[in-house]
Amino acid sequence: MDGNRVLVGAVVMLLAAGSLAAQQPAAGAQTPAQVYTANCAGCHGATGTPNAAMARSMGIPDFATVTAPADSVWVRAITSGKGRMPAYGTRLQAPQIRALVTYIKTLHRR
């Protein structure tokens, strides 16, 4: 019986470690904040608030004040592009896009 508990405990620890590892970027990989800075901040602003002229001319949302739509809406817009925003589906992998959506939603709370 004790052997089973040890085995179950080891499996639980491995699953937890795998979950934590999945949340951490691989060596050399960019964090969601770095992906945002490299791909989004030029238009959307470093903190999610674009400059007023850019927002007016291109219809860019202010992530700090916009009501966040469903994640699938963000994912689709980033992947396929929207309006004048180019598609990033060929530049970013799906996990990067999902992490980017999570990061963008944090800008609303700042």
Provide the descriptors you would attach to this structure in a database record:
110 residues; Cytochrome Bc1 Complex, Chain D, domain 2; mainly alpha
Map the helices and strands.
Blueprint: H1 2-23, H2 32-39, H3 41-44, H4 52-58, H5 71-80, H6 94-107
Helix pairs in contact: 2-6, 5-6
End-to-end separation in angstroms reads 51 Å
Note poorly predicted spans: 6-25
CATH topology: Cytochrome Bc1 Complex, Chain D, domain 2
In total, the number of strands is 0
Strand count, sense and barrel status of the largest sheet are:
none
Estimated structural class: mainly alpha
Output the CATH homologous superfamily: Cytochrome c-like domain
Instruction: Output the CATH class name.
Output: Mainly Alpha
- Give the total of domains: 1
Overall geometry comes to globular
Number of helices: 6
Query: How much is the average pLDDT?
Result: 78
CATH architectural designation:
Orthogonal Bundle
What gyration radius follows from the Cα positions, in whole Å?
A: 19 Å
Provide the succession of SSEs. HHHHHH
Percent of residues in helices comes to 55-70%
What fraction of the residues are assigned to beta strands by DSSP? under 5%
